[in-house]
Structure formats: C-alpha cells, structure tokens
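Give me the fold.
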Amino acid sequence: MQPSEIAPRDRLIVALDLPGIAVAEAMIARLGDSVTFYKIGLELAMAPGYFDLMTWLLARGKRVFADLKLHDIPATVGAAVRNLRDCGASFVTVHAERSVVEAAAAEKGPDLKVLAVTVLTSLSEEDLRQTGIHLSVADLAALRARIAVAAGADGVVASGLEAADLRAQLGTGPIIVTPGIRPSGEAGTDDQKRVVTPRDAFAAGADYIVVGRPIRAAADPHAAAGAIQSEIARLFE
C-alpha cells in the first residue's frame, strides 16, 4: 500500500497497553468509531486471550498491529511469523537484525507486513553509550532501517525525530510507523524520551502514528482520539 492509499482514519493506531483483555475490550468500546486500528503488544500477549482479542477486533472491522518485537534465532522468528500470518494482523514487529528480518520476511505471507524496530523511543544517546553503542540515535536508526529494508522488511518503527532522515534515505515505499506521540500542548513524556506531535510526525514522513497514554488516560478517550483524527484529516485533506 502506497502512502497516498492509506485512509486518513487508519493512520492513527491506538496502543492497547493494558493489563487484561476485559480492560482492553472496555477501552475499545469507549473509543467506538473514533479508532479503526489498534496495537496489541507484549503486555496483552502475556494475558490469556491475546488471539481471542485479535479475532474480536477483526470481527468488528478493526485492523490489528501485533507489536511483539520478535527477537530470537532466525528459525524461531520465522516459525513465529508463520504461525501469525493467517491470524489477520496487518503488522508485526521484529528487531532490525538482518537474519531476523530475512526469516520473518520469508514467512509473512501476502497480507502481513513486517516492521523492523530501529531505536526504541525510550532510549537516549546516553542509554546507547552505556550499552557500548557510540553512534548517535539518528545514525543508528538509519543504519538499522537500511539493513532491515534491504533484508525484506516492509517498513520500520522509528521516532518522529528520525522519520524525516529515514524517509529521505528509504524513499516513499517503506512504511514508517512513529510511536512516542504527544498531542500539541500536552505536558510530560512519561518514559518516552524522544517524542513529537502528530503534525510533526506526519510532516517528517510518517505513514502511521501510535498513540497510547494521551488517549487511554484522557477523561474522555473518545474525544481525545477524535481530536487527533480531526487533525489528521486536516493534514491529508
């Protein structure tokens, strides 16, 4: 799917980082028609009913991003993606190592897209240095993105702070999904260290944004999601 073919309402992905399936279903019910695309990740993957929730969402016409950040030996990652590919998810995440991406890409099938995680938005350059990585965040994200796309990834997950550089290097084809989104005027970043607004993310070349706490923790999650959807609609009208 080319960027121009993405429905504006699908560009907002809401992160269901919640403690259980019942809580997630209640949040989805509150959001109603304001959200079409959901990310279900590790927290819910450790709760009973992960795939039941995926089926429940798909039956209601929603799209699903399985944010599992798969990272293991290539044979194991390939087998995991093979098991996932017919479950109806649109995206799955893997770590941006060449052999891991190659294994995932070989097993993804025609409908599931593999996204490679570049640098988590919770990491700073000091965090990287403490692990022995002396590249800047931007250089490391670009290196990992190039490796992943060359290995068969359909796109990458990257901060909006790196998205413009990645779009320039990768061209228009690969998908860029940007987490760490904070609406304009919102104070605080929680454990996110590299955050941008929805407008800035899309201006930098992101195709999708992932928003979690600013919607989930809002007094009116439906209204919070609706406000972001209205902003997206204006940007792509």
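The longest helix spans residues 221-235.
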